Write a sequence for this structure.
């Protein structure tokens, strides 16, 4: 398969890294000053300070109906350089970590600081974020101590245990002027594919190319430099089906450092997407259903994120004055219990840089607290064996396993990196569909469902199909959403496909992660119709 | 509570020269917009309820932004963006979807969005026009239905004027050749000046920016208007900040507006200005904090411009006389004395520059397609007129070209270039003498000279006191013997009618304040031209205290022996 190694073509003069790593130097110098001199009388000093600097550039190309609507060629892009810090004040036993003020909604760091690209400007930015962070951590420290005195908690496990530190330095890559003309043509061709589909009211395509590097350094010796480059193709279309319901599904394909696939491959995928949306014109309205559902890989990925990754992450709840930590994973006390269908193994592999030739977004050999990461066998034969841990430990835990994760909008907490869902036995798509029909027959159901994609497990499912028992006929359905979709479904998985697929999720609100997951046939899933009403028809016909 | 802000901190200045005429009937972008508008309007006017007026405004903006901090660039971006606004009016001019819904503020946003900037993307552009029109009409019909039902249960408005007076058909087309800037030279200049902060360890924050916006605005409507107008706004802006030990934040800044490179001062002049900023900031840090005070005050020219804009200008905006939500300070006072008889006030958007300084409130047509007009608002203290958009009010049935807005908003009446001209002016030196005489006459220990103002706000709703607050940046006490002392921590407060009746003299030292003004219709570029004025009595109060302490460690460059660490 022909691939375009786009990031090697992205050299901009303003974006070439110096041979001497000025970023680490600025971080180290400000870090030394912070640890040595930063102090408010009668308040605890910094016990641990870490800095991140992220340098990215976003190139965007957008089209509508084959016409270019935006191009980064109209811009002279400039790297966005942002820095942030995570600090722990106090000491290993009594510190500010793992506590949330009652007047904060999120366990989030101070806002990232946009910095100038030079030694003095970098230090100025780091100084600014450090000052803000130190004040906040002192308040956090005193509030946490007061909280602990009042609550008489029995769990005395450390919130920031000492840990060995690691180092990983990815090579700095040179970037070149992007080939704007290529991406402009590509994005135009992608949305132009939709012109042949008569029911589409709108068809748009976006390409984002985001070369980037991230530097991490802490006061205990942890150090990391990572290539965080990614690119994506997003397609969206709008249709008003024959019942008058307007739908605007979209699909996004993310590619890490390897680059975008060939134009031919993307055009083929675009055609399949627009055709599927167009075919939705005749879709039937959903009715209540309880029974087996086949989740194709794109839907299975979201299922694994919501039902598994969320439950094994953040298993030590934050201490907070009001309410409970709703972000805490539910599998905290389930070690040794069956949480998954018996035939599955689940592993989290932060040390795996690429899989089947594809760079993995979750690659993170040193975690967000400087700890060398370990590959984890989380589930074997359906039983939960282990959990990701940061330096914030629960009772019985001796040390971090290097799974502290943090996005630029989160403080470090335990989470997953490259999550592999591996069945002992796999089936072809045809076999899986046959299993779905067989199970429907056993349950005396007229049809079963196939969910192609699931951008969000709580929203309307944009792409679902009924598979009829009687004749194997397929029929698109609209207006359905999941109900009572809980981790129980993980134990109800009947079979998996041989279509293992890699999904790379770049950093957003959550840290960058990868899911490697096949199609999953789940025995009992509840689908209910949404309460949407038909939309108004356009007053005026669409321009030709 | 809604506040109206005027800030320094924006880019820009306007221009007039070098523009070239074009043909409104043949301009390709106007042609696309007009054809799609008419195609839609033909059907929409037959709907129930009907669309009786439709307009499209498309703004193409080419922007250049550079920011330097401590000798390095933190931003260096150039972009081109297109934004479409669709104004659909449903019902009739007498009562339409924009009619005030009692108790709601929902009418100031327009449907629209990002559009291609190149008419070559004709299909995408037409599609977006069609889609945005559909959304705009759906919303307008919903709003209109709400208006109709709301009217059934609401008390009658005090002003029964129509909701809209459609503009006359206008054809106008003007372009401006794109101005090219030496980006590297700008970057070098910013880096060089921003690096100077490294010599001063009391400067906690600083930013040195250049911004350029080159706009092309295309406007078409259902009465057949086709307008294309350019605007170029360029600005260097510098800011340095320090914090006193008790947490008060102090700031000095410098702003240079221009259109072409040669409009801006030399690097050496900028460096001299920077040195003065540093000197003033250092003096402010050492200055005593001001206590609450009432007494005579001189508002220096630029500060006076802000003062008039905030306190008087917003209260002369037409729509505020109509809405029962506003205080209507001047609504029933046309023909009566409303301010000191020594003052004339006008608003003239047609003025592109004043004494060589570009005015950013310059425009030829407002955002509703009405030609801009020079409006005499106050003559010898007597109220003559209001700033009018296409929303008529009692006794003022026509627009005078002051319907303005930021993209994404619906236009309301706003200021352009507000000009204050005293009936009788003295030299500034004489004005200070008069201040000293006033101090003695009132037996006050000192008076104040407000040298510079960052901005301010005024409240115009009935739900809040009809008061204002203005935030001075640089203030001097002046004692009866004439000696001056810098002070900090002062806000000017008061009520409009009282304050303007106490203007007792004005100087002839006109100066321009170029800023951006925020209100219901978003941010718009404005200017105020004013001389220094003497007010016999004003009140000052302490500024809000910042609860944070200053940074614990000094800036990193202050510790480098080779770089300075001077204090």
């Amino acid at each position: 398969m022909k691939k375009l190694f786009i990031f090697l073509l992205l050299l901009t003069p303003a974006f070439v890294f110096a041979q001497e790593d000025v970023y680490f130097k600025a971080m180290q110098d400000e870090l030394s000053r912070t640890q040595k001199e930063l102090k408010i009388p009668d308040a605890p000093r910094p016990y641990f300070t870490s800095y991140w600097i992220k340098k990215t550039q976003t190139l965007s190309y957008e089209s509508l109906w084959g016409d270019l609507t935006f191009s980064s060629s109209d811009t002279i892009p400039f790297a966005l350089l942002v820095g942030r810090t995570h600090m722990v004040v106090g000491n290993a036993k009594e510190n500010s970590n793992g506590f949330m003020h009652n007047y904060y909604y999120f366990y989030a760091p101070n806002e990232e600081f946009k910095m100038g690209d030079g030694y003095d400007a970098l230090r100025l930015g780091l100084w600014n974020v450090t000052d803000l962070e130190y004040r906040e951590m002192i308040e956090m420290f005193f509030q946490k101590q007061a909280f602990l005195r009042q609550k008489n908690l029995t769990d005395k496990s450390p919130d920031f245990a000492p840990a060995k530190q690691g180092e990983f330095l990815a090579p700095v890559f040179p970037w070149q002027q992007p080939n704007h003309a290529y991406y402009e043509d590509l994005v135009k061709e992608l949305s132009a594919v939709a012109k042949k589909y008569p029911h589409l009211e709108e068809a748009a395509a976006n390409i984002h190319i985001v070369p980037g590097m991230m530097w991490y350094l802490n006061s205990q010796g942890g150090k990391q430099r990572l290539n965080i480059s990614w690119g994506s193709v997003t397609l969206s279309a709008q249709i008003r089906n024959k019942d008058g319901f307007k739908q605007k599904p979209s699909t996004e394909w993310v590619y890490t450092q390897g680059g975008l696939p060939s134009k031919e491959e993307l055009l083929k995928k675009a055609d399949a997407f627009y055709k599927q949306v167009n075919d939705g014109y005749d879709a039937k309205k959903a009715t209540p259903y309880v029974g087996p559902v086949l989740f194709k890989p794109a839907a299975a990925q979201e299922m694994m994120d919501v039902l598994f990754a969320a439950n094994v992450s953040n298993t030590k709840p934050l201490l907070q004055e009001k309410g409970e930590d709703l972000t805490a994973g539910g599998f905290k006390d389930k070690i040794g219990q069956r949480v998954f269908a018996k035939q599955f193994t689940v592993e989290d592999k932060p040390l795996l840089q690429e899989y089947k030739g594809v760079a993995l977004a979750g690659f993170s050999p040193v975690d967000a607290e400087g700890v060398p990461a370990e590959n984890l066998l989380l589930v074997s034969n359906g039983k939960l064996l282990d959990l990701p841990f940061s330096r914030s430990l629960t009772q019985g835990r001796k040390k971090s396993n290097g799974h502290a994760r943090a996005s630029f909008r989160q403080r470090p907490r335990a989470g997953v990196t490259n999550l592999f869902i591996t069945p002992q036995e796999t089936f072809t798509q045809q076999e899986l569909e046959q299993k779905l029909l067989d199970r429907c027959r056993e349950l005396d159901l007229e049809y079963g469902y196939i969910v192609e994609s699931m951008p969000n497990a709580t929203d309307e499912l944009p792409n679902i199909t009924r598979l009829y028992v009687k004749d194997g006929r397929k029929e698109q359905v609209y207006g359905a959403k999941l109900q009572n979709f809980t981790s129980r479904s993980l134990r109800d998985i009947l079979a998996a496909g041989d279509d293992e697929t890699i999904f790379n999720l770049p950093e957003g609100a959550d840290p960058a992660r990868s899911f490697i997951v096949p199609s999953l046939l789940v025995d009992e899933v509840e689908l209910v119709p949404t309460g949407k009403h038909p939309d108004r028809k356009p007053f005026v016909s669409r321009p030709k | 509570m809604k506040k109206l802000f005027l800030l320094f901190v924006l880019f820009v200045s306007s221009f007039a020269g070098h523009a070239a005429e074009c043909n409104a009937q043949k301009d390709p972008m106007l042609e696309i917009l007009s054809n799609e508008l008419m195609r839609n309007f033909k059907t929409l006017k037959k709907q129930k309820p009907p669309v009786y007026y439709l307009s499209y405004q498309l703004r193409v903006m080419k922007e250049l932004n550079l920011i330097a901090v401590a000798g390095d660039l933190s931003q260096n971006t150039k972009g081109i963006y297109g934004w479409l606004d669709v104004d659909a009016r449903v019902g009739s001019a007498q009562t339409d979807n924009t009619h005030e819904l009692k108790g709601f503020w929902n009418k100031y946003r327009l449907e629209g969005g990002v559009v291609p900037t190149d008419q070559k993307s004709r299909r995408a552009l037409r599609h977006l026009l069609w889609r945005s029109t559909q959304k705009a009409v759906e919303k307008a019909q919903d709003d209109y239905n709400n208006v109709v039902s709301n009217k059934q249960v609401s008390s009658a408005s005090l002003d029964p004027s129509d909701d809209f007076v459609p503009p006359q058909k206008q054809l106008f087309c003007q372009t401006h050749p794109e101005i090219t800037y030496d980006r590297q030279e700008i970057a070098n200049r910013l880096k060089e000046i921003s690096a100077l902060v490294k010599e001063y360890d009391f400067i906690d924050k600083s930013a040195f920016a250049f911004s350029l916006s080159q706009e092309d605005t295309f406007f078409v409507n259902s009465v057949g208007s086709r307008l294309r107008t350019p605007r170029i706004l360029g600005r260097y802006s510098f800011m340095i900040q320090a914090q006193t030990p008790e947490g008060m934040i102090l700031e000095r800044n410098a702003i240079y507006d221009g259109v072409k490179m040669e409009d801006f001062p030399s690097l050496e002049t900028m460096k001299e200005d920077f040195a003065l900023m540093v000197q003033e900031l250092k003096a402010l840090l050492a200055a005593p904090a001001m206590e609450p005070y009432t007494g005579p005050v001189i508002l220096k020219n630029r500060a006076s411009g802000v003062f008039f804009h905030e306190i008087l200008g917003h209260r002369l905006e037409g729509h505020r006389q109509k809405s029962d939500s506003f205080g209507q300070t001047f609504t029933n006072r046309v023909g009566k004395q409303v301010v000191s008889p020594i003052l004339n006030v006008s608003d003239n958007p047609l003025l592109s520059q004043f004494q060589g300084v570009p005015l950013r409130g310059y425009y030829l047509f407002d955002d509703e397609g009405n030609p801009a007009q020079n409006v005499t608002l106050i003559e010898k203290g007597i109220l003559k007129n209001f700033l009018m958009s296409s929303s008529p009010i009692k006794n003022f049935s026509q627009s005078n070209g002051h319907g303005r807005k930021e993209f994404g908003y619906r236009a309301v009446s706003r200021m352009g270039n507000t000009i204050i001209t005293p009936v009788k002016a003295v030299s500034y030196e004489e004005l200070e003498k008069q201040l000293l005489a006033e101090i003695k006459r009132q037996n006050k220990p000192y008076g104040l000279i407000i040298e510079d103002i960052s901005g301010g706000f005024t409240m115009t709703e009935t739900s809040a006191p009809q008061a204002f607050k203005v935030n001075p940046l640089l203030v001097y006490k002046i004692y009866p013997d004439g000696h001056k002392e810098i002070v900090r921590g002062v806000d000017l407060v008061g009520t409009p009618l009282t304050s303007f009746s106490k203007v007792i003299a004005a100087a002839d030292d006109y100066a321009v304040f170029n800023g951006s003004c925020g209100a219901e219709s978003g941010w718009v570029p404005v200017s105020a031209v004013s001389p220094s004025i003497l007010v016999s009595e004003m009140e000052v109060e302490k500024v809000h205290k910042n609860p944070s302490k200053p940074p614990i460690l000094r800036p990193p460059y202050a510790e480098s022996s080779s770089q300075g660490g001077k204090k």
Q: What stands out?
A: The first helix of chain B runs from residue 28 to 44. Chain B touches chain A through 54 residues (CB under 8 Å). Chain B is about 20% helix and 35% strand.
